[in-house]
Amino acid sequence: MHGFGMTTMRSERSSPRLTELTDVIRDRVRAGVDQAHTADLVKEALRPFLDVPGLLTEEQRRGDPERYLQHVLHVEPDASFSVVALVWLPGQQTPVHDHVAWCVTGVYQGAESEQHYRLCESERGPFLVPGELATNHAGETCGFAPPGDIHRVRNCGTGTAISLHVYGADIGELGTSVRRVYDLPVHE
Ligand SMILES: [Fe+2]
């Protein structure tokens, strides 16, 4: 499936450690706290799995020279969360976007930059102003909840980057957790 500048693959097989991770996430999501707090709990749960060898199968670590690849690892049956692995070759990136729900990311391999933006209005129309630029390396996590989560993710390293993303949404139904893509001028 193509869309949002990426290709989506469905995974049929999970490693035992990946099943363990989805069990822990389920437990945190069922705590039933607000979106920002849920993102914090899931972030803590994800961190110890980022240096587990064999967490992903060889197929789930595969990239695509054309565009970054989304491997759907798990969609919770009650649609409360989804887990994907994104595989990026050097320089591959997302459009500027935001999400329909909370989102937690953790870098499994390589390095990713995350440029945040603020949406502003002028007489000529809407535009973006760059905000925080964060670089996350293997083992590092970040989490956020809408509103105000407009960002672009990019593989800023020299090798393949792999990151795990947990979305508080049903990726199986929506195909993506992206709410909107912002194709707007950027003013410093
Ligand atoms: Fe995102």
From TrEMBL:
Gene Ontology molecular function terms on file: ferrous iron binding; oxidoreductase activity, acting on single donors with incorporation of molecular oxygen, incorporation of two atoms of oxygen
Superkingdom in the source lineage: Bacteria
A Pfam short name: CDO_I
Gene3D superfamilies documented for this protein: Jelly Rolls
Keyword tags: Dioxygenase, Iron, Metal-binding, Oxidoreductase, Thioether bond
UniProt binding sites for Fe cation: H97, H99, H151
Cross-link (3'-(S-cysteinyl)-tyrosine (Cys-Tyr)): C103-Y167
PANTHER family assigned to the protein according to its UniProt record, in alphabetical order: CYSTEINE DIOXYGENASE (PTHR12918), CYSTEINE DIOXYGENASE TYPE 1 (PTHR12918:SF1)
Family: Belongs to the cysteine dioxygenase family.
Name the UniProt record assigns to this protein: Predicted metal-dependent enzyme of the double-stranded beta helix superfamily
